[in-house]
Amino acid sequence: MTGRAAVRHWRAQRVSALALIFLVLWLVASLLAHLGADRAQVQAWLGQPIPAVLVAALVVVAFFHLALGVRVVLEDYVHTPWRLTTALMANHVACGALALIALAAIATLAFGW
Amino acid sequence: MTPAERPLSPHLQIYKPQLTSVLSITHRGTGLALGIGAIFFVWWLSGAAWSDACFRAAQAFWGSWLGKLFLLGWTFSLFFHLLNGIRHLLWDIGFGFDLPTAYRTGWTVVAFSVLLTLFAFGGGLYAWGSP
């Protein structure tokens, strides 16, 4: 990765990091408050609008930040071009799919589908 | 004259570990560990949304000996990556890049990561044991 793409990557990594500082601290506090919660309690928690929106924001930003980070690791350690291309694509597909599954789960809980 | 066969620098086998390099690789390692943790988090969320069996399996895992060990690892990874990430952001705006400050902030990150991990994980275990 060179030039403008690299600058965009650098900036995206840091902007997502800033957002994650707050989202992650909120998540740790929330999870500690819900230790041992059964399924009904988790459903009740994510049935409220603010927790649902914050968890949704967290998974989107976190998987975005993860995809950016894993990309740098792959670029450092995978030296065969076709292997690198494949690995980078797998990274984006996996992070995107996980974020989508999480969003669908949150929507199910939030709207009581 | 034939050049001497010597390792290229920086070569891991001859490179003396220092706080700065160890924390750098730990930042990467904890980031990857948190990625694995995020997959488990999605597993738990999916269970809560769609499947009793899946949710109970996730709950049973957190309750197990191995699950608690994983949670301890993720708790440390989270606080370390968070604090060291803030250290990186401060470097980006030009603060603390000189060696003495980098060492001081490095040890601060280590100390607070351990403290916050003990506090959150210990508090969590305590609260879990006595609901």
Ranges of chain B where pLDDT stays below 50 over 5 or more residues in a row are none
Average predicted confidence as pLDDT of chain A: 95
From the 3D structure, determine the CATH topology of chain B.
3 helical TM bundles of succinate and fumarate reductases
Mean pLDDT of chain B: 91
The total beta strand count of chain A reads 0
Q: How would you classify the helix and strand content of chain B by structural class? A: mainly alpha
The secondary structure category of chain A is: mainly alpha
Helix fraction of chain A by DSSP (H/I, runs of at least 4): over 70%
Overall geometry of chain B comes to elongated
CATH superfamily of chain A: Fumarate reductase/succinate dehydrogenase, transmembrane subunit
Q: End-to-end span of chain B in angstroms?
A: 76 Å
Determine the CATH topology of chain A: 3 helical TM bundles of succinate and fumarate reductases
The CATH homologous superfamily of chain B is called Fumarate reductase/succinate dehydrogenase, transmembrane subunit
CATH class annotation of chain A: Mainly Alpha
Number of helices of chain A: 4
Provide the CATH architecture of chain A.
Answer: Up-down Bundle
The description of the largest β-sheet of chain A is: none
